[in-house]
Amino acid sequence: MFKRPLPGWYWIAAALIVLWGAMGVFAFYTDATMSDAALAALPAWDRAFYQARPGWFVWVYGIATWGGLLGGIALLAKRRLAIALFGVSLAAIVVQFGYVFLATDIVAAKGAAATVPFPLLIAAVGVVQLWLARTAAARGWLR
Fold it and tell me: Where, by residue number, does the polypeptide cross the bilayer (predicted)?
């Protein structure tokens, strides 16, 4: 029996997911290694948030971004591990932004229009990544 090749859109989607994940890891690295000068240049609310956030927050941010990047790499390698990596990444996204929106006054300080859209996009991408990995596994594309 001949195995059908994966559709071209799969490879494009997986490559875009890897690029998205790399941007996330870069943002995480920039945040985790912020210099005192860069911290001092932040607006007052951002600086206060950065200094007051709990230690676990950085770990959750790292898990969210690294999980997404590694999940994308797993998709390119056609591995079922992508499902678990995207699931962990999505859970970390929910915890991360749950803290930001429920434990801080970010919306009151900056407004919903400035603070809500990008986290919603990040969460939506997380959902799509997980859906794609599950769909690929169900179609037998992942091993």
Answer: 56-76, 83-102, 114-133
